[in-house]
Write a structure and sequence with these properties.
Strand order of the largest sheet: 6-7-8-3-9-10-12-11
Keywords: ATP-binding, Nucleotide-binding, Transport
Shape: elongated
Radius of gyration: 27 Å
Largest sheet: 8 strands, mixed
Order of helices and strands: EHEEHEEHEHHHEHEHEEHHHHHHHHEEEE
Strand content: 15-25%
Helix content: 25-40%
Mean pLDDT: 85
Structural class: alpha/beta
CATH superfamily of one domain: P-loop containing nucleotide triphosphate hydrolases
Distance between the termini: 18 Å
Number of helices: 16
Family: Belongs to the ABC transporter superfamily.
CATH architecture of one domain: 3-Layer(aba) Sandwich
Protein name: ABC transporter ATP-binding protein
CATH topology of one domain: Rossmann fold
CATH class of one domain: Alpha Beta
GO molecular function: ATP binding
């Protein structure tokens, strides 16, 4: 999907194929033996930023938002890709040339206190960019500093104070004043209100909006709070594990259709109603490591709308449960980690009342047993209870594969069980890395459910073939 909306206006900032990978190899021996570990923090990101607009970048902590922000401005050197400002590739500039270009590109940090020099007064902090770029000196510099402080809602006499003498909101205003000092046209705001109280957040957001209107600024606004993103952004990019999974105008991203990850984030937004109980989407598992991201769609390990294989007649909910079992078996170091319920030595070890076990009810004078000591029927029930699997599955072939894997688990053959599940249950989402499909004007979603081969009624790919899209 192109970010261009059909007009001929050149974007003020264009990012193409940006990658930033880190070497996280630990220890001399690993380096000596060539066992390198690369953290793929940003892994192929593209976007345009137009003059005077705000692009919101949202995602969970650890998805690569801050690394993206710092890579765009050259604070972190990208591994690959290009960042164009007014048509000039910033990644090809020398250090001196890049420093000069930073008059046009500025950064507002998440933690205002740690980003301000504690040994400088507010006047020194705001005036430092003027000194570095030779923009003002003497009385002119002092007047410019006072003017900047007033512009962000501080008083001229605050110039003599040190950072620790300001409140959190005032320190962030000071950081914004410093960014404004060189009259930039782009400011990257890295979660600028996440460390502030709600009332102060609103004040800072309103200040940024007023400054944008007054000076024609363009913002890249990084946040994990969708409410903030919706309030400030013209367009939104949703980021997951180093990649954009959805991009588009704010109003379209916040209305269906949307990526399953976006849908989960939106469902977590609380309502201002004391009686609201919420119907948020629960994401299973944890965010995978960027050192070894999953194959195919990177969200498939947690996606509640995983596309089932056409090989079986199974619901999406059951397929999600099977995938959870498969992933847990792949990573488990013991059978007990696969069964949260507990068995009892009472009778034949069957679950209390023939159903799910209450841990309190499972304790008897003889003490609890391990799951592998229970009967085959009990162990089977425990595994299905843990993962929400029907007994039996609706598809006979799928049921046979699960039963064989559960037998292997009961015999403590975890590796064999993982291999059986890996071979039997493979979603198209695991095989193919989705392209960004156009779903509307300037709106793209990287999800196989928007591929033309997806059968919405059947909930899978109609002929069971590999879906269209780029291979991993």
């Amino acid at each position: 999907m192109s970010d261009d909306d059909g007009d001929a206006v050149e974007p003020v900032l264009r990012v193409e194929g940006l990658e930033t990978h880190y070497d996280s190899t630990e220890g001399f021996l690993d380096r000596l033996l060539g066992r390198s570990r690369r953290v793929r923090a940003v892994d192929g990101v593209d976007f345009d930023l137009r003059a005077g607009e705000t692009l919101g970048v949202v995602g969970e902590s650890g998805c690569g938002k801050t690394t993206l922000a710092r890579s765009v401005l050259g604070l972190v050197e990208p591994t690959a890709g290009s960042v164009y400002h007014r048509g000039e590739d910033l990644t090809a500039l020398s250090s001196a040339e890049l420093r000069d270009r930073r008059k046009d590109l500025q950064y507002v940090f998440q933690d205002p206190l740690s980003s301000l020099n504690p040994r400088l007064t507010a006047g020194g902090i705001v005036g430092e960019p003027l000194d570095v770029h030779g923009l003002a000196a003497g009385a002119e510099r002092d007047e410019r500093v006072r003017e900047l402080l007033e512009t962000v809602g501080l008083k001229p006499n605050h110039a003599a104070r040190y950072p620790h003498e300001f409140s959190g909101g005032q320190r962030q205003r000071l950081g914004i004043a410093r960014a404004l000092a060189v009259d930039p046209e782009v400011i990257v705001c890295d979660e600028p209100v996440s460390a502030l109280d709600a009332s102060v957040q609103a004040q800072i957001l309103n200040l940024l909006s007023d400054l944008q209107a007054e000076f024609g600024l363009a913002y890249v606004f990084i946040a994990h709070d969708l409410r903030v993103i919706e309030h400030v952004s013209d367009r939104v990019a949703v980021m997951y594990l180093g990649e954009f999974v959805e991009r588009g105008p704010t109003e379209t991203v916040f209305e269906p259709p949307y990526h399953p990850y976006t849908e989960a984030l939106l469902s977590a937004i609380p309502e201002p109603d004391p009686l609201w109980e919420g119907d948020g989407i629960r994401l299973t598992g944890t965010v995978p490591s960027p050192v070894d991201p999953p194959s195919g769609c990177r969200f498939h390990t947690r996606c509640p709308r995983l596309v089932p294989s056409a090989e079986y007649d199974l619901s999406g909910e059951t397929w999600r449960s099977l995938t959870d079992l498969k992933l847990r078996a792949r990573e488990a170091d013991g059978v007990t980690s696969l069964t949260a319920a507990r068995t009892s030595r009472e009778g034949d070890g069957s679950p209390v009342d023939g159903g799910a076990l209450d841990p309190a009810d499972a304790i008897d004078p003889a003490g609890p047993t391990g799951p592998t000591e229970a009967s085959r029927e009990t162990f089977d029930a425990l595994v299905r209870e843990e993962f929400g699997l029907p007994d039996p599955l609706s598809d006979p072939d799928a049921e046979a594969a699960v039963a064989e894997a559960i037998d292997a688990l009961r015999d403590d053959r975890i590796g064999e069980a993982a291999e059986l599940l890996d071979a039997a249950f493979v979603s198209p989402c695991e095989r193919r890395h989705p392209t960004e499909y156009d779903v509307g004007a300037d709106h793209g979603i990287a999800c196989l459910r928007y591929d033309g081969e997806f059968d919405e009624e059947a909930g899978t790919f109609a002929d069971g073939s590999e879906p269209a899209g780029s291979a991993e």
